[in-house]
Amino acid sequence: MIKVLLRDTNVNVNAVNAVGYNASAISEMNNIIASSSEFDNSNNQGAVMYSAAVLYQNVLLLATSFSSYPKWRHWIGCCISTPMVLVLVNGRPTAQFGVQKGLRQGDPLSPFLFNIVVEGLNCLLLKARRLNMIQGMSYGEEGVHITHLQFADDTILFLKPQMDYLLNTKWILRCFETASGLRINFHKTCLLKVGKNSVDTRSWARVFKCKRETLPITYLGFSLGGRLCAKIFWKNVVQWIEKRLVPWKKRFLSKGGRLVLVKSVISSIPSYFMSVFKIPSGVASTIESLQRNFFWGDGDAKRKLHAVDWASVCKSKRNGGLGIGRILDKNKGLLAKWVLRFGKETESLWKKVICAKYRISAYSLVWDWKALAAGSFFVKSVGSLFVEGTSSANIIRKGLKVIIGNGGRAQLWSDIEWNSIQLKRAFPRIFALARDKVGLVKDFGRWLNSKWVSEVQFRRPPFDWENNQWLSFLEELTNVKIRRAVSDDKVCSFNPKGSFSVSSFRRCLEEDQLEGGVLDDLNWHGFCPSKFEIFVWQLLRGRVMVAEVVQHFGIRIDAGIHCPFCNGSTESIDHLFLHCAWTRSFGARLWDVVWSTWEARNQKIFKDAPADLGYNIDLVRFRVAWWFKNHGIGLKMPLITITSNLKESCIDSFPTKLPKREVWSPSACGVLKFNVDGSARGSPAHAGIRGVLRDSIGSVLCIFSLSIGTQDSNTTELLAIHKAVCLCHSKEFIKGRKVEIVSDSTVVVNWVNAGDFGSVKHIDCIYDIREKMASLGSLTVRHNARSTNTLADCLTKFGSKSRGDFPFWTAD
């Protein structure tokens, strides 16, 4: 049967319905289909399990369908037919012998072969649908058909409520079981109906020899058909986090260890769910409460003070926090990723279903949240990001931009925005007058003398009271630029590379900035243990639990609030670490003592240990030497030697040889070299660009200097390259000669030479450079070390302080 159905079929393991499809996309697709109550269909979920072995000939047949390379098929055959094993008898290995029943189930190759074989089931179901043996879900006029979804050994089937389709499906599964060697476990298969229909699932389940279920069900960890906004849906997530936060871990982990556990483990548990659905605020508060209590060591039996408010703790390190992140912000970032994917992807199954179901163009680049307002819970979750007045809406509208390329995907009225508003909503009267309301950008203009001229046809001329919108629309239309080399795309403008990341979106959501954030940058260098870095982080905020701070929380201290070392002044942070006589004598000998001072203070108060100054000085030396040795600097000497002579040991450990310095070298014969550089006295700050053009013998042909105002470093480097290209384009004697433009900025050189849009912020400048380079033909841009760009670098450093602009040519 497989031979018949695979005949004249060209399949690919990475096809849309293949086993390797993305898990989150499949889960979101299942939720959309299961929640579509307007379709009267039945749902049949089957679990595919391993049998004893996979038929050898079947694997080779499927491998032949997947690939036309004989060597690849030969490898697959050898992996199955030539395994050798040996047995230990009384501790001695026997001779190797061949395996007669193929690969064992635990073999590392088994999952890969399973993906190949189970792809045969995908081909069977697709061919059966084309032969009208089965019928699944159908969306839209374009006919987006879905009969099944596969992920590893989990398969979910969608059938119309007809007995013939059910019997054909069982026949297909039985044939696949016989041909492939994979056994279908019908005891783990369930049958259920979706929507309002009169199907008697009890009698159907007896025919299929499986159990019957009702919605909601669980598939790939998600609940399908239930109320996804209810707290009960997130109950398992909360329970998983509680299991990770058992009380004994708080006792045996320092604050540094707790921080690692909270960031790397606990925060990632709900990510799978939050990447598809909006988390209720009550559930987010519960998760953050568990995180907060675990980090500060709080519990039911013993209460602990929370020194810093949780909002400050969750901020990124660059903004004065510990980088944990708020749950709601992470949820918004994960959902915002779908907005960008909606604009970038055209062949994804999840996008086809959404566009077909809600009658949106499959090539649309913009998530029209108003048209999708009445969609599934996933669609509503993503649409919640666009609520007016929220920070997420402002970030998405300003940060996710449609870049017009050849105009072949973007719709003029829907995808192009004016002041972050679609043209059809920004100019409603002009949109009503337009003849074509769904056309692409390329359909509203033509090329004239290598320039794009926009043309829009209207039903009638505008009235006088419509002139304001008319003039504004024409002004916006002239700003639309067509670039033939690339297709339309959607990019992320708050990331220089144009790609989207959840962390960058979360940083944009952070409103408050830390005062004096430079201290935090100095704090997180990784030299000291994380618990000491967290202690310094608390110290910089004045939140170390000395007596004065504890008293501020309203807690009575029976032992008094005086300094335990001098018994003079009140124990405040300034007194304990700066003004106390014991600390001054301690710090006069070695300054890196804040942690040891705090440890000595706790030993004095809670264990009545003597404050031995000499012992603590030796302890500080030992700790610093230990940190230095564990930091990976490369110290080879014993720890006792480092401790006894810390300064000389640390200095001697650093390499004394300087790296080899590259110098400027002339270009090849007949080639001109243009060294350019840009410099900004800050980021951003007043900047200048300079460049030097020389021939193959080192003779200077041109020097230019230009002040460009306030710019950042990458912009200055790009403008320096742009100026050099413009100068080469303006001189006739350079045209036809090979020119190398050399810059010491790797990022900017990659922008210019990349095949995509490069930097979103500088897209117009980058494309102007590329067009001029294409017209010259023999001009290239490459990177070289700064030491080879000395003259241009020196001119730039001095030129950034001046305001003079000049190009000086020594040759014509």
Automatic annotation (TrEMBL):
This is Reverse transcriptase domain-containing protein. Residues 1-224 form the Reverse transcriptase domain. Signal peptide: none annotated. InterPro entries: DNA/RNA_pol_sf, RNase_H-like_dom_plant, RNaseH-like_sf, RNaseH_domain, RNaseH_sf, RT_dom, RVT-Znf. Pfam families: RVT_1, RVT_3, zf-RVT. PANTHER family: REVERSE TRANSCRIPTASE ZINC-BINDING DOMAIN-CONTAINING PROTEIN-RELATED-RELATED, RIBONUCLEASE H PROTEIN. CDD domains: RNase_H_like. GO terms for molecular function: nucleic acid binding; RNA-DNA hybrid ribonuclease activity. It comes from the Eukaryota.
